[in-house]
Amino acid sequence: MSPLLSALLSMEPTDSLIALARVCGGGLVTGEVQRFVWDHCIAKDAGKLHAPYLKKFLKKLIAEVELNHGDVLDELYEQYAHFMASLKDSDFEKGNARVFKCISFLFPDGNGFNSCDSRKLMAPLQCSLNMLEGDTGCSIWPSSLFLSECILSFPELFSNKSCFEVGSGVGLVGICLAHVKASKVILSDGDLSTLANMKVNLGLNHFSVETVMSETTEDPNMVKCLHMPWESVSESELQNLKPDIILGADVIYDPVCLPHLVRILAFLLNPKKLYPEKGSGNHLGLSLESKCTDGKVNGTHQGSTDNGDKFQALLPKRTENGATYAGLKKGSMAFIATVIRKIETFDKFCALLDSANLTIKDLTDSLRPFNLLPYMHSYDRTGVRLFAISCK
Ligand SMILES: C[S@@+](CC[C@H](N)C(=O)[O-])C[C@H]1O[C@@H](n2cnc3c(N)ncnc32)[C@H](O)[C@@H]1O
């Protein structure tokens, strides 16, 4: 029943919860399922969950049991009556309230989804209920769920790497990077309220937060959170980052911001700028050879280098769907996950990359992550694409 609990903790739509509850009971919300809901979902976590959401779920659960002429557990009736007396229906709709969700990444085993797998990650997050204007960074976007699944599915790509994320929002990608033991995790956002919320989330996940770049001894539990508007960040600030890997989730949507974002990528992916004294000191072992022409992504793989082969040896032989990691070779790299909402905006991004001497490759099919969020029916992973960007 762990998918049902995970769905409740991540505040999935209540209809999805009922569907999962039915699956648990073999088609009906049985007494056993209700007992589980009470013991594990409500009695234990009622205080942490968003009460109007829980009220809505209980209302549907009770209706479902009654419709099928079942017996509703007394505790569920009592809890619902308590909510009826203390909450109004309109409370759910209320403005920009922040809520706590818990995103559970479940790893498949032979018998379904294993909630005891040591790779499992549960990330509590404070976020906004609605994707309100000006509050975009406090919502969890599908691209960051996808990028998180990639990180947890292919930890060897990120462990012992220095990782820097642009537009980090709630901080979920950073939490996954720290979970797979990236050597350094630097998160950033241009919005101050988003940054404040991100810091809360890192605290909830037991990380300590540093807000300035420093060369001091690295605390493995330390995540850096930087205020970094793309328009104004200076080259000297970027110079300090020296990341092996740059990440971004759902950051390609505003055409006005794109030239600034590409400037950052061009600077950080160009080893001559980051490591002038060392020449072209490639330090990761990854690069790409596809070209971006007229806004179209060309995914042709043109062979590999020795270092590329060395890196390939680190990778699992095959992805979940059997594909290989064709195209991953030597050099620093950016991984950008995005939903392409407007093709013109994406084409503009590709054209800017091309003029900045960067290449882009679509890795969506070759680096397909495990579905670690099987309970999250609201997450449309098919709409997310994963791109890798590197220096030509
Ligand atoms: C759609 S949200 C995505 C948040 C998060 N990466 C996710 O996928 O859940 C875009 C994020 O980029 C940040 N952002 C947008 N424009 C920015 C800019 N010009 N400079 C810095 N951050 C920016 C926003 O504050 C927000 O956190």
**Backbone CA Rg:** 23 Å
Beta content: 15-25%
CATH superfamily of the largest domain: Vaccinia Virus protein VP39
Largest sheet: 8 strands, mixed
Weakly predicted, low-confidence segments: 278-296, 298-330
Number of domains: 2
Bound molecules: S-adenosylmethionine
Helix content: 25-40%
Give a count of the beta strands, DSSP E runs of length 2 or more.
14
The CATH class assignment of the largest domain is Alpha Beta
CATH topology of the largest domain: Rossmann fold
Distance between the termini: 49 Å
Number of helices: 13
> What is the ordering of alpha helices and beta strands?
HHHHHEEEEHEHEHEEHEHHEEHEHEE
Overall shape: it is elongated
Structural class: alpha/beta
Q: Quickly give the CATH architecture of the largest domain.
A: 3-Layer(aba) Sandwich
Within the largest sheet, what's the order of strands?
Answer: 7-8-6-5-9-12-14-13
Protein name: FAM86 N-terminal domain-containing protein
Pfam families: Methyltransf_16 (PF10294)
InterPro entries: Methyltransf_16, SAM-dependent_MTases_sf
